[in-house]
Design brief:
- The chain is an all-alpha fold and 118 residues long.
- Helix content is 82%, strand content 0%.
- The protein is built from 4 helices and no strands.
- The chain has helices at 3-25, 33-53, 56-79, 89-117.
């Protein structure tokens, strides 16, 4: 499997999806620097880590997990909202992505690379 291509594609897809939510779905009404950092910041952080370390398998898995989280939160907030407070999920999403999903993805990628080198 070409991990580099997967990592770059998933990182691009996640960043573009976050920008879509940030720019298009908000309609520019609550467009602030804080909203930009909260919505797109985790993707920029992951891209910077990918450029620094180049462990493609871990970053591809982390990006896939982050994109799944991104889509799930989008569906809960915009497609099938059940409560008026569902949008608060966007406040917890960056912490979930950076503190839980990225380490899990990088750990799985490390194990994949360790096993393939053995």
């Amino acid at each position: 499997m070409n991990w580099d291509l997967s990592a770059v594609g998933l990182l691009a897809a996640g960043t573009l999806f976050s920008l879509y939510v940030d720019v298009i779905k908000t309609g520019g009404n609550s467009h602030t620097m804080f909203a930009d950092i909260v919505l797109v910041g985790p993707w920029i952080f992951l891209i910077a880590l990918y450029v620094l370390f180049r462990k493609a398998s871990g970053f591809a898995i982390a990006a896939a997990l982050m994109l799944a989280c991104e889509i799930w939160v989008y569906l809960v907030v915009f497609v099938t909202p059940k409560h008026s407070t569902d949008a608060l999920a966007y406040l917890a999403k960056p912490a979930l992505q950076l503190l839980i999903l990225v380490p899990i993805g990088l750990g799985i990628g490390y194990l994949i690379e360790k096993r393939s080198n053995s």
